[in-house]
Design goal:
Elements (H helix, E strand, L loop, with lengths): L2 H8 L2 E7 L6 H11 L7 H7 L5 H12 L5 H17 L2 E9 L1 H4 L5 H17 L3 E9 L4 H9 L8 E7 L11 H9 L3 E6 L5 H9 L5 E4 L7 H10 L2 E4 L1 H6 L11 H6 L3 E4 L4 H4 L2 H11 L4 H13 L5 H21 L1
Parallel strand pairs: 1-2, 2-3, 3-4, 4-5, 5-6, 6-7, 7-8
The protein binds adenine and zinc ion.
Length: 338
């Protein structure tokens, strides 16, 4: 392992953009599928080949296929626990897990099957020193009425949920479609996030901020196509959860070397780095390392990204201060050894 890789692995960090369904590995999709009599892929090798995607549409089709193997509480617990273990081993101390609840309820699963399974994984993570909470993402291609009805039915699970968001197909499904949903969620005291400006236009980022009033933009990689918008986000210190490997592999950023993250930092935005879908695009640390190496990030830029991950999380102010102090202690210890 290089010095930089070891340094990044050793830092306490928060992961704010990782999809539960994006954690289903080729091995799990086959094993869980066999157990449940659902076989979207014939073998691990076939699953690996199918996971090799290069557009958002192809990715979303595979993501939906993989999601179909999840049927029981145990399945949700197993997939989430495995990624929580991996993340904790890479220094993640706090993780906000996204899920596409509609990908499961529309297959007839009960909401409780999903949330009770995830609660088991969350208790397991907590025993391992990892705090977790859930972000319920609504799929942009589905309608707002369905999303509103589902939001209303989440009351019994409110304590597990920290925020809502929107994800899935961007083109033709602008954030303004969900204005009432976000108003409702805001009144419930939930945090607000939105995938925007990944494949869809930078106007989506503007709508997410002005109409949905999000706390964080997920991705936002197309922001520099509108220089005035980029200046505005810089002035506001907007939080952006960037996922460099998925952005490059799905062809919305030309290369890791050309990723806008350094510019975002310099302009006053508050980006942080995440895995998106680790079974497809690598873990959080792999994302940090690839980005830091290819974009030649300095240690202080890496540290700013890690600080932003805590500062822009939905943790309480006192927890954020505690984690930032822990990070500072780690940095001091590394400096003493250097
Ligand atoms: N679901 C999982 N990952 C996603 C992404 N990067 N964009 C939209 N929907 C997603
Ligand atoms: Zn995502």
């Amino acid at each position: 392992m290089t010095d930089l890789a070891a340094f990044i692995r050793s830092l306490p960090k928060a992961e704010l953009h990782v999809h539960l369904e994006g954690c289903i590995t080729p091995e799990q999709v086959v094993a869980i599928g066999r157990r449940n009599g659902v076989a979207p892929f014939e073998s691990v090798q076939a699953a690996r080949a199918a996971y090799d995607v290069s557009t958002l549409d192809d990715f979303l089709a595979m993501f939906a296929k993989a999601s179909e193997v999840l049927l029981h509480e145990d399945d949700f617990a197993e997939v989430a626990s495995a990624y929580f273990d991996l993340a904790a081993a890479e220094g993640v101390r706090h993780l906000e897990l996204m899920l596409d609840l509609q990908a499961h309820t529309t297959r007839g699963l009960a909401i409780g099957t999903v949330f009770d399974g995830l609660a088991r994984a969350q208790r397991h993570a907590s025993r391992n020193g990892l705090s977790t909470s859930l972000i319920v993402n609504f799929m942009r291609e589905r309608d707002e009425e369905e999303a509103l009805a589902l939001l209303a039915s989440l009351a019994p699970y409110r304590s597990q949920i920290v925020a809502i968001g929107i994800d899935s197909a961007e083109n033709g499904h602008p954030p303004r479609k969900f204005t009432r949903l976000f108003q409702e969620a805001r009144m419930m005291g939930l945090g607000l996030v939105a995938h925007a400006g990944f494949e869809g236009p930078p106007e989506d980022i503007e709508e997410a901020i002005d109409l949905l009033q999000v706390d964080r933009v997920d991705h936002g990689n197309r922001v520099y196509e509108r220089p005035a918008l980029a200046r505005r986000l810089g002035h506001m210190g907007t939080a952006l959860t960037v996922c460099p490997c998925s952005e490059v592999e799905l062809g919305v950023v030309a290369s890791l070397a050309e990723h806008p993250v350094r510019r975002m930092l310099m302009d006053g935005m508050r980006p942080s780095v995440h895995s998106d879908d680790p079974a497809w695009f690598g873990s959080i640390t792999e994302n940090y390392i690839a980005l830091a190496q290819e974009s030649a990030l300095t240690r202080s830029e890496v540290l700013q990204l890690v600080r932003n991950s805590f500062a822009t999380s939905f943790l309480t102010a006192s927890s954020i201060s505690r984690y930032l102090a822990e990070l500072d202690e780690k940095i001091d210890a590394c400096a003493d050894r250097a």
